Amino acid sequence: MQEKIRVGIIGYGNLGRGAEAAIKQQPDMELVAVFSRRGKVDTLDPNVPSLHVDEAENYRDKIDVMLLCGGSATDLPEQTPHFAQMFNTVDSFDTHAKIPEYFAKVDEVAKKHGKLSIISVGWDPGLFSINRVMSEAVLPDGKTYTFWGKGLSQGHSDAVRRVEGVKNGVQYTIPSEAAMERVRKGENPELSTSDKHKRECYV
Ligand SMILES: NC(=O)c1ccc[n+]([C@@H]2O[C@H](COP(=O)([O-])OP(=O)(O)OC[C@H]3O[C@@H](n4cnc5c(N)ncnc54)[C@H](OP(=O)(O)O)[C@@H]3O)[C@@H](O)[C@H]2O)c1
After folding, report:
1. What is the set of domains in the chain, with CATH numbers?
2. How crowded is the C-beta side of 31, counted as CA atoms within 13 Å?
3. Ligand 1 binding pocket, CB closer than 6 Å
């Protein structure tokens, strides 16, 4: 095997742990270290070095790609423009309405520092976005709707936990049966985000 891609992880929540497990399955990647604002964390593999996030900049020459696994609500808007100055980055920013402004900010920093940043990687945005592009290409007169759930939303759960005073919280996304029925009937209705889903928060 030729040289491996040296990967780092910043932010060790659900995504950080998932990224660690996924890297383990890639024969051409090695996980160099995990960085967290909480300092040392219990990594799935205890042999993976775990360091405070302030140590990350000392790894500029030791890490090829930094996976930014912080939350979209408040972490990534600060962390990505900061770390895109020193690393090639991949993140899963999923506040859909704010992706254009996020893209502009990250693009500016990455270009200025000669780095590559891939934003909004995941299932949605991510794999679902690719599905939408393909469907719209073959059905140009169609109308695109996305219904999520029933299921737990990681992004919205993260946002709930960022509300001051909240100790723990989760958000379940429940698609509106009535809205789905109208779409299935081919009515092509205009639906706002809140028309399409109910968002149940447990705090
Ligand atoms: N594009 C997509 O399809 C997609 C899909 C799923 C999620 N996402 C995005 O991914 C983001 C992260 O999701 P997640 O489920 O990994 O969120 P999470 O578990 O809440 O983790 C977010 C951050 O919170 C901190 N954290 C985690 N556990 C903690 C604890 N016990 N105490 C204090 N801080 C803790 C970690 O940062 P530190 O280690 O620095 O403390 C972590 O990076 C979401 O905000 C969402 O926007 C995108």
Report:
1. 5-118 (3.40.50.720), 145-202 (3.30.360.10)
2. 26
3. 11-16, 36-38, 53, 69-72, 75, 92, 94, 120, 122-126, 154-155, 158
